[in-house]
Amino acid sequence: MSNPIKQAIESRVSTNYYDPGRHLSDDDIMELVGQATRAPSAYNLQNWKFIAVRSPEAKARLKAVSYGQQKVADASVSFIICGTLAAHEQLGQALAPSAKAGIMDQSVIDGWVAQATRTHTDNPELQRDEAIRSASLAAMTLMLAAEGMGLATGAMIGFDSEGLSREFNLTTTEVPAIIVTVGYPKPGNWPQKPRKPLHEVIEFA
Amino acid sequence: MSNPIKQAIESRVSTNYYDPGRHLSDDDIMELVGQATRAPSAYNLQNWKFIAVRSPEAKARLKAVSYGQQKVADASVSFIICGTLAAHEQLGQALAPSAKAGIMDQSVIDGWVAQATRTHTDNPELQRDEAIRSASLAAMTLMLAAEGMGLATGAMIGFDSEGLSREFNLTTTEVPAIIVTVGYPKPGNWPQKPRKPLHEVIEFA
């Protein structure tokens, strides 16, 4: 009776054990990132970058900066999802396709760029919040997109941020916000863990 | 041909215009939050709180601290989604249902609590990242859950954080990370805005 989206949300598990013999095609990887980028971001900043780690050599480097977690070696692909700082500087370019499609007037875009520039410049906390927020919205979309494609996922924040930035040549404006492993599960994964009672986290106003 | 999740992801729009005459039941609101809390969080911290703003009086207060944006008045409900700081302090309690369900051994839980305490204590940046990250993962899940229920949504970060915290009595550990409006769309909303070309945001390793 459950709708397919509810079913995906409620059956998703944080996968730790993957079948290391299964691969994903470039097309599937592009499809996952394509859906992930449909996530919303403030002003449609799209201040994100996805590094698809899938070669044995790159997986070994990622494992080394992820405290030796085997799942990044066994998953078909691990996405390092970065949010980017100083995102207002590229907002005009990010919105160019909306102007070209005739959805937004250039004057509206100019207004958004001016407003984002005013609020983001010299506000490192907002820039970092925005990087983490956009990357996380995209990461969740990617995880549910993967469910829709019959794939298992796991979100990870257990990595050495500095080491990862060095190994994958991130620029100073690229903040690794979260890693999402994707692949085919092996037996032995936990089920989805139970959550707090709803009344503890909801308030009506 | 498209699977229902992909379809939801690709047809979701950031709604600005809602039918102000449509309401959501308490059951629907609980259902949305219930699905949102199925999002993953580091260690299953579940460091989030959802304030469902739906009374005319509370909507007026939210509109006042959201730079007068009419959509929070017109949407059936607006969720103020907070991430919480010092989340490690409540991790043992957050994982108690997993112990009770026999999914996690108490010794594993104790190890996680020790590790989270070690890394989070005296690390305000990580605490804030974790608050924004968990709240954003939950927010995206809520938006897609709403799609599955035939509802429209919009994510908003245009609010005065201090004013909102005061008006809704947030504690010092509750960070308002994002607002998600939910309801029934009126005509006149933008379609989903186009995204950057994929090759600009993806890198293979």
Your description of this structure?
- Two copies of one chain form a homodimer.
- The model of chain A has no long low-confidence stretch (mean pLDDT 97).
- Chain A has a domain at 4-86 and 132-185: 3-Layer(aba) Sandwich (NADH Oxidase).
- The first copy, chain A, is globular, with a radius of gyration of 19 Å.
- With 205 residues, the first copy, chain A, is of the alpha+beta class.
- Chain A has eight helices and five strands.
- In chain A, strands 1-2-4-3 form a four-stranded antiparallel beta sheet, with helices on both faces.
- At the A-B interface, helix 1, helix 2, strand 1, helix 5 and helix 7 of A face helix 1, helix 2, strand 1, helix 5 and helix 7 of B.
- Strand 5 of chain A pairs parallel with strand 1 (48-53) of chain B.
What layout of secondary structure does this protein have?
Two copies of one chain form a homodimer.
Chain A: H1 4-11, H2 26-36, E1 48-53, H3 56-64, H4 71-74, E2 77-84, H5 91-100, H6 106-120, H7 124-148, E3 152-156, H8 161-167, E4 174-183, E5 202-204
Antiparallel strand pairs in A: 1-2, 2-4, 3-4
